[in-house]
Design a protein that fits this description.
The protein is of the alpha+beta class. The chain folds into 2 domains: 2-56, no CATH class; 72-276, Glucose Permease (Domain IIA) (Distorted Sandwich). The protein contains 6 helices and 15 strands. The protein has helices at 2-6, 29-52, 56-59, 61-101, 120-123, 130-139, and strands at 8-14, 21-28, 105-106, 115-116, 169-172, 182-186, 192-194, 199-207, 211-217, 222-229, 231-232, 239-240, 245-248, 261-267, 270-272. The protein is rod-shaped, with a radius of gyration of 35 Å.
Length: 281
């Protein structure tokens, strides 16, 4: 038995032309078995690494399940975001109707539906009109006729003073032809955003496209909108003064192109160019 195990085999490599010996080596059956085992282990290790990395989509049975799980999770987040946006818009429309009808407002913060105590004498400053209803159309993304607001100029508010919401550089101007109904203002990080005038917060919530948004209704059927905020500091129904901080500049929402404030002005259902009334630099 020992002779069979210890028996050696001689391997000789010769040249084909003259059969001269190039090299030779001997090996036992034990050594040959160990080399074979080592070779199989190396092949197994390499195969395992490839199956978990480069070739995982063909050889890893859990790959497809993991990818499907990630897609389901992403779709779930999208559906949740859409539900939040729909609920926020429904609540906004309900509050607009409440302001018109003189009813209590409903808080738009998550998991709440508590009527807010609002000074109704202040709310009554804003008269019921068809123009107020037209503001709802902007939030429903309905197309607007550009010719309907070309005649409105800064002379319409010659006696009014508007506080700048923040100081910064205007990177995107008012362009209704491209459905850009406001201006984009870039400023320092964590810069506070201020109300342009006295008014009442009629919308303060998160939307999928424009992130955290606060909308303030002022007198004379004027509405100002501040989008892409990082933090909202006012709630629905809050009364604010001109120059009072209402939010913090941010980079939220699918339509954002970086940290900035998108600010809009609406008068009797028509968008105005904020740069005609406010100095941002």
């Amino acid at each position: 038995m020992n002779n069979w195990i210890e028996k050696k085999f001689l391997f000789v490599i010769r040249r084909k032309e003259d059969f001269s010996v190039i090299t030779s080596f001997s090996i036992t059956k034990v050594s040959l078995g160990l080399l074979l085992i080592l070779f199989l282990m190396v092949c197994f290790t390499i195969s395992l690494i490839l199956a978990k990395t480069l070739l995982s989509q063909w050889f890893d049975p859990a790959y497809t399940e993991t990818e499907n799980t990630l897609k389901i999770y992403a779709l779930s987040e999208t559906v949740d975001s859409l539900l939040m946006e729909v609920q926020a818009k429904d609540t906004y429309l309900q509050n607009i109707k409440g302001i018109i009808a003189g009813e209590d407002l409903v808080d738009t913060r998550p998991d709440t539906a508590v009527p807010l105590e609002v000074n109704r004498a202040e709310i009554d400053l804003y008269k019921t009109s068809e123009a107020t209803r037209q503001i709802i159309e902007e939030f429903e993304s309905l197309p607007l006729d550009e010719s309907s607001f070309m005649g409105i100029t800064s002379s319409s508010f010659s006696d009014a003073y508007f506080f700048p919401p923040l100081k910064g550089v205007v990177t995107g101007g008012f362009d209704p032809a491209k459905n850009h109904f406001g201006v984009d203002v870039v400023s320092a990080e964590n810069e506070p955003v201020k109300s342009i005038a006295d008014g009442t917060v009629v919308f303060a919530s998160w939307t999928l496209e424009t992130g955290y948004v606060v909308t303030i209704q002022h007198s004379n059927e004027l509405i100002s909108i501040y989008k892409h905020n990082s933090v909202l500091l006012k709630n629905l129904g809050d009364l604010v003064k001109g120059g009072e901080i209402v939010s913090i500049i941010g980079n939220t929402g699918e339509q954002t192109t970086g940290q900035h404030l998108h600010m809009e002005l609406w008068y009797k259902g028509n968008p105005l160019n904020p740069q005609e009334f406010i100095t941002f630099d």
